[in-house]
Design goal:
Number of strands: 0
Helix content: 55-70%
Strand content: under 5%
Shape: globular
Radius of gyration: 15 Å
Number of helices: 5
Largest sheet: none
């Protein structure tokens, strides 16, 4: 487990996950008849761009240095986890500005939670990897 949580490896895993997230909007098998990914949420070009930018940030950090990977993991982890918590409560997030453009989503608590799981999981994974890492080594 510690090898997976090594900062550069964790950043590479997140890069793959984020780039996959951007791709899900273009894989018909993952969408329902209403265009919702996994039947839960809609992605758009703006959200796809955020996922791609985050994925590229993760990739560059992993390739750049251990310190860059740690910084990415800590910053990204906190931002994504807090965004996920906000999604559980409101059904909207701040990273994609949906709390401003949509406000509180009128969906069930279950949909709010399930839609927020990716950000909670990625944020927790990144935070754990980033804050467990020693910065001096």
């Amino acid at each position: 487990m510690s090898a997976i949580l090594a900062p550069r490896n964790a950043s590479l895993i997140l890069a793959a996950a984020l780039l996959f997230a951007a791709a899900t909007d273009y894989i018909p098998a993952l969408m329902d008849a209403d265009g919702r990914v996994f039947g839960l949420f809609r992605l758009d070009v703006y959200k796809d761009a955020l996922h791609v930018a985050s994925g590229l940030w993760a990739l560059v950090a992993a390739l750049w240095s251990r310190g860059a990977a740690i910084a990415f993991l800590r910053i990204f982890g906190v931002l994504y986890f807090v965004d996920g918590l906000m999604g559980v409560v409101t059904g909207s997030g701040f990273l994609d500005l949906s709390i401003i453009t949509i406000g509180w989503a009128q969906v069930s608590a279950l949909v709010k939670f399930l839609s927020s799981v990716p950000h909670l999981a990625l944020g927790a994974f990144a935070s754990l990897a980033g804050f467990r890492a020693r910065t001096g080594a």
